[in-house]
Amino acid sequence: MTGFTIASFNAKNLIGPDSEYYRFQTYTPEEYAWKRDWLADQIVTLDADIIGFQEIFDEDPLRDVIALADTYGAAHNDFSLPDGTKRYRKRAIFRKLAYGSYRDAEIVFAPNINDGEPGERRPGLAVLSRFGFADEPEIIQDLGRPLDIPFSDGGEDGGFFRIRRLSRPILKVRIPVGDQVVTVFNCHLKSKLGEFIRPKDGGPAPEADLTDYDPVGRALGSARAAMRRMAEAWVLRGAIVQEMQLGNPVLVLGDLNDAQNAVSSEIISGEIPFKNYAWMLRHDAKHAADRYSDEESEQITQDIEAVRLHSAEKLFMRKSLRDMVFTTAFGGVYESIDQIYMSRHFLPESEGSIGEMTYFSVFNDHLTDGSHAEAPYNKLASDHGQIMAHFNLKGDA
User: Fold this and answer.
1) Which residues span the domain enclosing 217?
2) Are residues 161 and 289 in the same domain?
3) Which of 175, 177, 105, 184 has its CA nearest to residue 134?
4) Strand ranges, E, within 268-354
5) How far, in Å, CA of 264 to CA of 387, rounded?
6) Tens digits of per-residue pLDDT, 54-96?
7) Three-state SS for 326?
């Protein structure tokens, strides 16, 4: 039995000191030292075998944080583990306390092709793996040619939504774990912040002027952001299905910027099949009783289930009877917008299962909803909780 853990970690604007990322936003050396220290502590607490990071502007600060985590982890081991001369040193309780180093781990960084000059920076993604990588990573962002999503208006041409590139990259890596190779997608979809169009002279968008509040214009900005997020979810779904049709186990993680029941999240995970399709009129029905046969109903269900993803959070709540998991908090609203999804290879009851999820951890004690006195500290800590899924694989590897 091979066990491993995988985590999603939005680091919130990780960049070195005195580097302007968004307009007028930088970290002083003291602020960077605080953020670096907090992130390293959180990595030690996670101690995950695989971590997908979001909001990474440059690779060097992330490597700096990981090195500090190893320093803290080594100190933790010196304090927590028994002296090597004692006969009980190999007992399981102490192995559980041990921090595993990232000294021999590998890291892949995916920069954002939309990245710009200081003040106009755009963050990328990274994956850290203690198991290394089976082959070269794949970065999905520039789609190569415009992708048009057509609409129909009562049978007439209803226009289209065009997307040329994703707002942030999707990082696809294949990781050897035990006897298996698992495909991992790390993603950060378009946020809910409104997307406003700047005038040709390069000035700010009119909707950005809150002293001349435009509720309809700002609603359109939110609609644009939602359409972009759903289009990005569709692109991700295409890459997921392609990988699953090759028979490969798949894990998807990251900041989806939507809860698991949102349309964009359901696009990523796939449809939930009906219990029975034999009641449904056929797509090519010739009369009122022309419905799918029992055999066709079974085949439809199998086809849908074969490419469906399952939420680690939902499976955990079902097993533990918990009903409160959140990874963000703002203005009194607590919700989960960071997710880990898995293909049916990780469901023990599925045919061809290679293992199962045994636990799901949420690290959100640092989150505040913006109304508390300590809320400014969240400028430096992450404004997301970290999530981690624990898996056991079958086999003797």
Assistant:
1) 2-270+307-393
2) no
3) 175
4) 309-311, 328-330, 333-335, 338-343
5) 20
6) 999 999 999 999 999 999 999 888 877 777 666 665 555 666 6
7) coil
Specify the amino acid at residue 389: A
Average pLDDT, the chain: 89
Q: Please give the single-letter amino acid code of residue 91.
A: R
Task: Sort strands 50-56 and 2-14 into parallel, antiparallel or unpaired.
Answer: parallel
Q: Using alpha carbons only, what angle is made at residue 220 by residues 218 and 226, rounded to the nearest 5 degrees?
A: 110
Count of domains observed in the chain:
2
Q: Which two tokens stand for residue 266?
A: 């359901």
User: Which is it for the CA torsion 41, 43, 45, 47, positive or negative?
Assistant: negative
Say how far apart CA 277 and CA 292 lie, in whole Å: 6
Same-domain check for residues 193 and 283:
no
pLDDT bracket for residue 261 (50, 70, 90): confident
**Sign of the CA dihedral 299, 304, 308, 310?**
negative
Question: Is the whole-model pTM more than 0.70?
Answer: yes
Mean pLDDT lowest among 72-81, 135-144, 162-171, 299-308: 72-81
Calpha distance 175→50 (Å, rounded):
9
